[in-house]
Amino acid sequence: MVVGLFGVVVQVLPGTLLVLGGILLWATEVQTASGWVVLAIGVVATVAAWIGKYLLAGRGLKKAAVPNRTLVVGGVLGVVGFFVIPVIGLPLLFVLGVYLAEQARLRDRSKAWISTKAAIRATGITILVELAGAMVAVGAWVIAILVS
Contact 119/74 with Cβ under 8 angstroms? Predict the structure, then answer.
């Protein structure tokens, strides 16, 4: 579950899935009512976070008029950066990709930077919302461990 929380923050691993997987393994091992309740809480919290992050990020990107193709360019360069420059390549090349795509689309550096900042904010919001859902799931598990 700690690896899952780390994965949520660094966006390299499927963090919430790892958290849910850990809770599922624990629930199937203990096979108690509290174990199944914790699993249900974890599923509800992470699904709500997944939905919430897309709604919140999408609203911010739509408001800033950042098209999906810009995010695709940023995502592709981010993945390349992950393999080319360990640790910092993903966020660094994501930002560069978004900026370059917006610069090409808008032909204005200041407007491209405004769009890039909106994409960075949206990414930060998705990380925070997903982390909140994962923390609720892990918190429910910790409480169940402490009570039993």
Answer: yes
